[in-house]
Amino acid sequence: MDILLNVGLFIVALSVLLKASDWFINSAEQIGLAAGISPFIIGVTLIAFGTSLPELATSISAVYADASSIVAGNVIGSNITNILLVLSLTILFGREILIEHNIFDVDLPILFGSAIILYFILLDGDVSYIDMTILIIGMIVFLTSSLSAGRTEKKSRPTVSWKVYAMLVVGGTLVYFGAVYTIEAIVNISSSIGISEDVIALSVVALGTSLPEIVVSISAAKMGKASIAVGNVIGSNIFNTFAVMGIPRIFGSLEITDDILTFSLPFMVAVTILFLFICLSKRISKWEALLMIMLYVIYISTLIDKQPIEF
Q1: pTM for this one?
Q2: Which of 66, 70, 74, 236 is paired with 180 by a 20 to 30 Å CA distance?
Q3: 3-state SS class at 26
């Protein structure tokens, strides 16, 4: 009965978290346009950050709940899910992606660099204050350079009402409470069925918190803006690495388990390199999407095999 109650709590809390994130994203987008930020830059920065908000909220809540092993699992699992699952579902339910924007000069190098930085930071099994500073500086540099390059003329900026700002506050508040109860349910479920918190974070939480990316990317593909899906994945993974890994360290130490270091972290780097090679043709086809889904299934299956559930 306790397991069923906690599963129910998890579903409700995660649903609130995702819906509140949607409100936060929409209001942030309108405020960004009013501030003179171009739509493409909003997609790569504000929308990517907004779709990464569930990961950030659950990670901060995990530190306060003394379940900090969820943080690294959340980041790494979400980055893997974004590339292998979000992109592939976008292609299968939308259309093949043609990469029109030049992502090879800045975006892809930063994505690859962030993955390598995260690998070496976590390699010693600890995230120090120096590591935290490096990650947060990386986030600030990425945000500053992207936003400064995408300003629009003042006369073309729309206006927003107080309701938009109110929705931003309401959305952010509900994101916080949704994250708190999502983590509480995860901790209770993991203790009940004998499976580690980081495994749940790498699979269930990573999939759940990647739902905003899936929805945004599929919607963009159906509107004929499939290249935005690539920008969303790139931006979300960069934010996950820099912000979701760095900011929670402010609130407490982070536990990095051996399973993450020996399997999931190297797998994430390998998946990022695969993504770079796939993007070289500036076209992501359906057969490549099927390949990515197969790799995702293999990844999840390996996680389950490494630690079977024990009731």
Answers
A1: 0.79
A2: 236
A3: helix
- 8-state DSSP, 104: T
How far is it, in rounded angstroms, from Cα 85 to Cα 74?
15
* Amino acid letter, residue 108: L
pLDDT at res. 311: 47
Pick the CATH number of 2-306 from 1.10.3720.10, 3.30.360.10, 2.60.120.400, 1.20.1420.30: 1.20.1420.30
- How many C-beta neighbours within 10 Å does residue 188 have? 17
Given a contact cutoff of 8 angstroms between Cβ atoms, the answer to whether 255 and 74 are in contact is no
At 58 the pLDDT is 83
Distance, in Å, from the CA atom of 118 to the CA atom of 265, rounded to the nearest integer, reads 9
Low pLDDT (below 50) residues in the chain: 311
Q: What digits encode the pLDDT tens for the residues 77-103?
A: 989 999 999 888 888 876 677 666 666
